[in-house]
């Protein structure tokens, strides 16, 4: 399943990222934040407007706002 479909509060591990689907600068920024293959993540919240953007992603002790299009490029497995 892709990260944008992960239920709120469900923990998961990122197993693949389609970096080609992202702009280079955005991909580098996400990697610098630790959002990459092997990272354990969970969805904290989803926006209420315009297709549920942004998604609040918990990674470690950080919460990062992520666009739905970025989350769609990441494949996760539930833990």
Plain-language structure description:
The protein has helices at 24-32, 68-72; strands at 11-17, 40-46, 55-59, 62-66, 74-78. The chain is α+β, with helices and mostly antiparallel strands and 79 residues long. The chain has a single domain, classed as Ferrous iron transport protein A (FeoA) (SH3 type barrels), CATH 2.30.30.90. It has a 5-stranded antiparallel sheet with strand order 4-3-2-1-5. This is Ferrous iron transport protein A. Keywords: Iron. InterPro entries: Fe-transptr_FeoA-like, FeoA_core_dom, Transcriptional_repressor_C. Residues 1-78 form the Ferrous iron transporter FeoA-like domain.
Number of alpha- plus pi-helical segments? 2
Looking at the overall shape, the CATH architecture is: Roll
**Helix fraction?**
10-25%
Strand order of the largest sheet: 4-3-2-1-5
Assembly type of the chains comes to single chain
Low-confidence segments, given as residue ranges, are none
User: Sheet bearing the most strands, described?
Assistant: 5 strands, antiparallel
| CATH superfamily caption | Ferrous iron transport protein A (FeoA)
Q: Which CATH top level class fits? A: Mainly Beta
Number of domains: 1
Instruction: Name the structural class.
Output: alpha+beta
Q: How large is the radius of gyration?
A: 11 Å
Beta-strand content bin: 35-45%
Work out the number of β strands. Answer: 5
Whole-number mean pLDDT: 92
The N- and C-terminal alpha carbons lie at a distance of 12 Å
CATH topology: SH3 type barrels
Order of helices and strands: EHEEEHE
Backbone shape: globular
């Amino acid at each position: 399943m892709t990260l944008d479909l992960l239920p709120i509060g469900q923990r998961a591990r990122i197993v693949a990222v389609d970096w080609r689907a992202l702009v280079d600068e955005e991909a580098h920024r996400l990697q610098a934040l630790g959002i990459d293959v092997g990272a354990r993540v969970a969805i904290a919240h989803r926006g209420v407007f315009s297709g549920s953007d942004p998604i609040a992603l918990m990674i470690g002790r950080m919460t990062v706002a992520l666009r739905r299009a970025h989350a769609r490029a990441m494949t996760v497995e539930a833990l």
